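Batch job 17 of 40 flagged for manual review because the log was empty.
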Amino acid sequence: MIAAMGVLPNLINRWNQDNGRMIALQALVSRRGGTISAVAKFLRFVIQLAVMGTVAFLAVQQEITPGAMIASSIIMGHALAPVEQAIGAWKGMIAARDAYNRLKTLAGIGVRGADGTELPPPKGRLTAENVTFGVPGRTEPIISGVSFALQPGEALGLIGPSAAGKTTLARLLVGSWAPTSGHVRLDGVDMTGWRDADRLAYIGYLPQDVELLGGTVKENIARMGEAEDAQVIEAAQLADVREMILGLSEGYETQIGEAGGVLSGGQRQRFALARALFGTPKLLVLDEPNASLDRLGEQALLDTIDEMRRRGVTIVVIAHRPSMLEHVDKILVLREGKVDLYGPRDEVLAKLMGNQSAPGPAAPEQVGQSTQALGGRGAVATEEGVS
């Protein structure tokens, strides 16, 4: 989520602010402690030197014994103790200097997407060109040769059995991961080439595992950045969560806890949807957005998808429930990382339903395949009469 929507600079700024306050308090404590320590050492040195001078004077006057001279040398040793301590701490000073140099080097490493040419706002034309993605240690790629194209305002339903690569493809579509080969482009620009500032403005992503961050409801919807109240309220209204937020103890300023721990699963998913709708997104990728929703929440989600389509936003929805497929223009069936079926919704659904009803010995196997393609819910699709 952080990489997909360019939230990293905002998180870095928030960390810098918190770290700056900590450093300021630490510096204040160090100054006070250093002052007290310096005064104490100064007084100790003055006393030691005064004693040593007195002993030397008395020795010259032959008023003390040689044993007093030995005592004076011990006093001198104590007087030199701070110097010895400084020599002993030299190794720590060298280590601190090296650590400082490493931090400077690390701070100079550019954040992916932080710089680059400012591009014009995209219209939402999404293309996948022979996209392949593999990981070391695995013989077969997770995604293999996936290609499709969506025009602004079109919605794609991405379905398939478990472990077909749907979530991996979603991460590739938002630029969170880079393909091993092939390209994913938004208005002709490779997804990994968009700046973080552009991702904040034009890309919305709802991951399968909802990832909220410690802070308030408002901060999470605003993607941890500074935003006007009107923008946050508009995103909440689009996701139909305004009443839910106002019902919380402190409304938009309610602290949700680490990872949204004080919220229910449905609340986290709907707040994450509002975060994905924040700003002026031109591309929305929703990974099983209704997994934790009840009937009312799912209807609100479907209304939101229809509204964003009317606004010309390109949408990719990973779905298992047949009701989601009624609100898309195209369907892509992914199986073992490859495109099994792709085309207009009605044509793909007709082929899936035709496989289920095909006569002959092959029918049972075909039914199983169609059921898997619909995420294990092919029978439900038939009963509900999805068209």
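Reviewer: the log was empty due to a logging misconfiguration, but the result itself is present. DSSP finds 14 helices and ten strands in the chain. Unflagging and moving on to job 18.
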